[in-house]
Amino acid sequence: MNKIIISVSAMLLVVNGLSGCANMTETQRDSGTGAAIGAVAGAVIGRASAGGNKGRSTATGAAVGAAIGAAGGYLWSQRMQEQKASMEQATQGTGVAVSQTADNQLKLDIPSDISFDVGRYNINANMTPVLDRLAASLNQHPVTTVTVIGHTDSSGSDAINDPLSVNRAAATRDYLVARGVAASRIAIDGRGSRQPAADNATAAGRAINRRVEIFIAEPAR
Prior knowledge:
CATH class of the largest domain: Alpha Beta
Low-confidence stretches: 2-15, 18-50, 54-71
Strand content: 5-15%
CATH architecture of the largest domain: 2-Layer Sandwich
């Protein structure tokens, strides 16, 4: 019981600290507060239900709680549902996977066979129809934000893969900007080979890992 009281007190301190951050937007504060509350609550739940491995249960509970708490930062509105349906139709038969994430973002997984050649970051012709349709959809829904994340397979060193993944994300952003999407709406990141989606031990797995992920979100207001 004492541990739960301490955890709740810690949660209140974190929330108060986040509320006082002048440089954070309202959405960032909401997401951060939600994640903080979720993490502490998850840790309490994990510890309370732990068997012999309390450390792992606490960590797992905190991670799950943080994800659930942060999910309050985004909305899944009718506009987002329309964008999802539109992108599903536009990418039918292309191999692009369109899904709704746990935190209410629209996610497009664009595989290597229609996006980038091995070791390259210039956009293939097969990818342009998908990005054209995405740009049109984004221009129709200007309240949404976009995050583009590039990935590579495990071939080569981090010194090669890290900038390559960023360049793939940047090339995707630049294509969208050239078609009218405001650059201020688009954030990019590169993860190199650190987040594989398949086994890098096989050629098929490496091909899957050479990919770009595009996340579209409508921030809560």
